[in-house]
Here is the input.
Amino acid sequence: MGKNRYDVKRGHFENIEGDKLKKLMKQKFGEVKEKEDKLIVENQGAISNLEVWTEGRTGLWVDLEMDQDVDGDVAAETVSIWNDFLREATGFTAKKRKKRAKKKAKEK
Here is the structure.
């Protein structure tokens, strides 16, 4: 999937500031490592490598690599967990994130 920036809903950043983002990632993905200002998850479900960091109070950056060779059930479960994580981290549903991404692409 590569590197993407997700908007964080106004007033929602307080839910991921400080150690709260790391706690959310642990809850969703298990073991979380820290390197510089990034939180890292490795080899979890279909995720080979995931790096997450914040940008000010309005943006959440993710750099995600997925393992294409996993079982379909594992991939589906990972996508479900991933969408739950993004919903809780950004305050936006998958539908809203898609709509916002399309709008930003049109503006460019």
